[in-house]
Amino acid sequence: MKKFLIAFYLAVTAVTIVGCGGGGPGLSPVKPPVTPPSTESGYLTGTVVSSATGQGVRGVVIRLPLADSFLSATTDSKGEFRIRISDTDNLLGYFQVDTSAAGPAFPTTTLVTYRGQTYDPDWVDIPIEVLNGTTSSLGAIRVTEVTDPNNPPPVPYPSKDTVIIGRVVKASDKKGLPNVRVEFGTVKVYTTKTGAKGYFAVNLGRDAAVLPLFSGGPWPPTFKIDLTSAGLSSSLQVQFQGTIVSQNSIPVPNAVLTNQTTALGAITVLDIGGGGGTTPIEPPPPPSF
To answer: Are residues 169 and 264 in the same domain?
Structure first.
C-alpha cells in the first residue's frame, strides 16, 4: 500500500509540472522563430512591339543596368516581359533593348521608338514615374521590323528630350530620400524635387546640350540640392562619385556636360558618421569636342 501511494504521488507531481508549461523557475521560455526582414520587391513590366505590325515581338532582351551589374528579361510570344526589381536596386535611369535574338527582321542597329521619341537601343530613358514607383509598367516599346530586305526603312536621326536623372539616398539605410530640392544650371536654373524613392529628373528640352547651362560660371560646374525641404539639416554633407562635398557644390561630371550620359547616379547624404570633413576636389580639365 505504501509503494502504491508513493507511485501515485510521483505521477501527480509529474503531471503538475508538465501542466505548468515552460515558464517555471529554472526553465528557459521557448522563443518564437526569428523571421528575417523582407526586401520589398516587385516587377517592372512592358511590351515590345513591331513597327510594321504593332504585334508583340518575341526574343527581345530588356536590360536594366545597375551600378555594377544588370537585371534582364526576354520577351515572350506576346512581346511581354517582366523584370523582378527590389527597392535596394539603384537603377541608373535607362534601359537597353537587344533584338539580336529576335531574328534578322529586327536589326540591332536601328533606333527604338519610345513615347514618341527615338533612342539608341542601348540608351532609352526610364520615365521618372517608373523610377519612383508611381507605376510599374514601361508600356509599349517599338522596334523596327524590316519587311523588305531590299528596301529597308530609313533610320531617323535620334531625337529625344535631354533628361538629367539622379537619385538622393541616405547613408544610414541606403533608401531613397523624397522631397529633396534640386537646382541644376547657372545660366538657366532648373528646379525639381525627388520623388518617393529619391529619384529626380530635370528635363532640358528636345536635343538640348548641357554645357551651355553653365557657360561663364566657375569651373568645374556644380549643381545643388537642398535637404531642408526633406526635413534634414543644411549642414549635412553628401558623397558623390567618391568625393565628399557640400550640398551646394556637387560637381557635374564631364560625361554629363558633354552629353555622353544623362545619368548622374547616386548622391549619398551622410546622415551618419563620415560627414565631418571635406575632401578637396581636383578640378577636371574642360571637356574637349
So the answer is: yes
H-run or E-run covering 224: strand 222-226
The Cα 202–Cα 223 span in angstroms is 12
For residue 276, give the amino acid letter: G
Does 274 fall in a domain? no
Q: Which residues contact 178 (CB under 8 A, 6 or more apart)?
A: 193, 194, 195, 196, 197, 198, 230
CA distance 276 to 271: 10
Residues 94 and 166 in one domain: no
Residue 61 lies in a domain: yes
Residues of the chain with pLDDT under 70: 1-41, 88, 273-289
What domain range includes position 224?
A: 161-269
**Span 102-156, pLDDT tens digits:** 999 999 989 999 999 999 999 999 999 999 999 999 999 999 999 998 888 887 8
DSSP line for 134-172:
S-SEEEEEEE---S-TTSPPP-PPP--EEEEEEEEEETT
Q: Within 13 A of 149's CA, how many CA atoms are on the CB side?
A: 5
Locate 239 and state its grid cell. 558623397
CATH of the domain at 102: 2.60.40
Q: Tell me what pLDDT residue 18 has.
A: 43
Q: What is the CA radius of gyration of the chain?
A: 29
All three cell numbers of 273: 558618421
Predicted local distance difference test score (pLDDT) of residue 216: 78
Distance in angstroms (rounded) separating the CA atoms of residues 85 and 132: 13
Strands 41-50 and 137-143: parallel
Residue 232 corresponds to which cell in the numbers above?
Answer: 534634414
